[in-house]
Design a protein that fits this description.
Elements lengths: L3 E4 L5 H15 L2 H4 L4 H16 L4 E7 L5 E10 L7 E9 L8 H15 L5 E3 L6 H9 L15
Parallel strand pairs: 4-5
Antiparallel strand pairs: 1-2, 2-3, 3-4
Helix pairs in contact: 1-3
Bound molecules: coenzyme A (COA).
Coenzyme A binds next to β4, α4 and α5.
């Protein structure tokens, strides 16, 4: 698929916000999601991630098709925690449902890697839900491997 990357604009936010919130919602562990009210959770979580979705901690890049159609986006920036070295961090990736399975997700992840290389990063990281088999497949196919496992146990 022929795609062109352009910087995200404010006018893209009505697509980006619901998509990002849906991805985060779908990634919640089942036992946590079932006790939540969706709207209350959204207003809580929106505030937490606003600086990443709209602010200058990240860049938003949109993939457009040949006629300017919105194919998907990435939210990319930097993150460092365990070591002094800051790595590129792919905060979010989303492909429009009608365009999934055509290689766009893979192209976006590869583009994110190039973005990181251009900035001199030696590594790109991301976080993915354990149950998100499709995303994990794309990442692993492109050379990402699990480094840490985020674990939880409901207490009774
Ligand atoms: C994850 C996502 C970005 C992938 O985009 P995409 O354009 O469909 O990806 P591609 O077409 O490049 O590749 C899809 C691959 O997943 C595989 N796949 C599809 N469903 C799968 C599943 N349930 N489990 C494992 N692999 C799966 C396809 O076979 C294909 O692999 P292949 O090229 O080796 O055949 C897209 O599905 C999406 O936007 N999902 C919702 C948002 C999301 O979950 N984002 C990730 C946040 S960490």
């Amino acid at each position: 698929m022929d795609l062109r990357m352009r910087k995200g604009r404010r006018a893209d936010l009505p697509i980006i916000w619901p998509a990002t919130l849906q991805t985060a919602w779908d990634d919640l562990p089942e036992d946590e999601r079932k006790g939540l009210d969706r709207q209350a959770w959204e207003s809580h979580f929106r505030k937490k991630i606003e600086q990443y979705v709209e602010g200058n901690r990240t860049e938003r890049w949109v993939a457009e098709g040949p006629s300017g159609e919105f194919l998907g986006y990435i939210i990319i920036g930097e993150s460092g925690f365990l070591t002094p070295e800051v790595h590129a961090f792919l905060y979010d990736i989303w492909v429009a449902p009608d365009h999934r399975g055509k290689g766009i997700g893979q192209a976006l992840v590869e583009w994110a890697g190039d973005w990181a290389r251009r900035r001199g990063h030696r590594k790109i990281k991301l976080e993915v839900g354990e149950g998100n088999g499709r995303a994990r497949h794309v990442y692993e196919k492109l050379g990402f491997s699990a480094e840490r496992r985020y674990m939880g146990k409901p207490l009774r």
